[in-house]
Amino acid sequence: MAPRTRAARAAVTVVFLLNGLLLGSWAARIPAVKERLDLGEAQLGLALGLVAVGALVAMPVSGWLSARGGSRRTTRLAFIGCCLFVPLPALAPSYLLMLPGALLLGAGNGSLDVAMNAHGVAVERRHETPILSSFHAAFSCGALAGAGTSALAAGAGLDVRWHLLAVAAVSLPVGLVACRALLPADADHAGAEAGPLLARPPRALWAVGAIGFCALVCEGATADWSAVYVHESLEAPAGVAALAFAAFSSTMTLGRLVGDRLTSAWGADSLVRRGGLLSAAALAAALLIGHPAAAIAGFALLGIGISTMVPVVFRAAAEVPGVAPGVGIAAASTMGYFGFLIAPPVIGGIAELTSLPLALGLLVVLGLAMAALAPRVRPRAPAPRMAPSPAAAR
């Protein structure tokens, strides 16, 4: 492997890690922001909704910019924006000023999510084996580190404003140094071939995005409802209930660490099919048994099952014929992120009409849907190893 490719892989890994650190720190300190501004539940919900709106608006723009001029510059600019925008909601002196900060935070993160994945695909194409899952493992590790350090900061009584400013201040120079090793712009730019900013994705891209949608519905639902299910439906203590999401998060990280090896050994379509079937079978068994230990084990296996779905989806989206890689990843990201957003209220609504165990049964159906859609991520042709450009060889 060329030294430039090896350095670019390390650089992308650092960007993913720092993005996870920033988001994990923000998410863990949301209660502190709520308390500082004395927000009600509805006010906080609106602010968090604007974070999502910012991401959904920015993702297609970031994908188009990555395709037009290469993902190197877009990744760098989006990373700077992410570092600058993460502390804004905490720094706002009032709720009204918090709202534009929340919108910018979402836009910065959504832009970086697309751009760094597009660059990750460009690096992977110069590599001999799949490596995209390792980048997502770095993100998960960063998020866990952010949550852990935030717990320490909160326990020490550190003001949320100073905490998030410190995280951003440390992350920014580290990330900018890492970005210097990214591949040159001509590694993945499509120029005019990127097409218009807004265009209807081809049918093949819809099918790939549907897998990401299903996976992120499962992830979003588990994040918000796994502990509630174990605590309220199964009457387990709160400490035991918290283990459900902890187990899910841990196995998600572990699954991504080995995801590239599994992709090489089984193939992308087989990995998605097996992951979907494992997710469906594990959660169905857990819901039928109805015991806290079974639920924790079921959510742990669900984490393994869906851990590699997003890397596989992004890789497949970047290979859809007639679509620039950045644009394809942006479309798949937008569909998947939409699933993550609607999962909590959809599960809550079904639970209100029926019961929470029955509502979580929707995730079993989605696991089967991912298995059925698995052929859509099968490579259409052997992936050629891209020769370095003259600029990259220097």
Q: What does this protein look like?
A:
The structure is a single chain. This protein has about 400 residues and is mostly helical. The chain folds into two domains: about 5-180, Growth Hormone, Chain: A (Up-down Bundle), CATH 1.20.1250; about 205-375, MFS general substrate transporter like domains (Growth Hormone, Chain: A, Up-down Bundle), CATH 1.20.1250.20. Helices cover about 80% and strands about 0% of the residues. It is built from 16 helices and no strands. It has helices at about 5-30, 30-35, 40-70, 70-85, 90, 95-125, 130-155, 160-180, 205-235, 240-265, 270-290, 290-305, 310-320, 325-355, 355-375, 390-394. About 55% of the residues are buried. Residues about 380-394 have low confidence and may be disordered.
Question: Helices, strands, pairings?
Answer:
Layout: H1 3-28, H2 30-36, H3 41-69, H4 71-85, H5 88-91, H6 95-124, H7 132-155, H8 160-179, H9 203-233, H10 238-266, H11 268-289, H12 292-306, H13 309-318, H14 325-353, H15 356-373, H16 390-393
Helix pairs in contact: 1-6, 1-7, 1-8, 3-4, 3-6, 3-14, 4-6, 4-8, 6-14, 7-10, 9-10, 9-12, 9-13, 9-14, 9-15, 10-11, 10-12, 11-12, 11-15, 13-14, 14-15
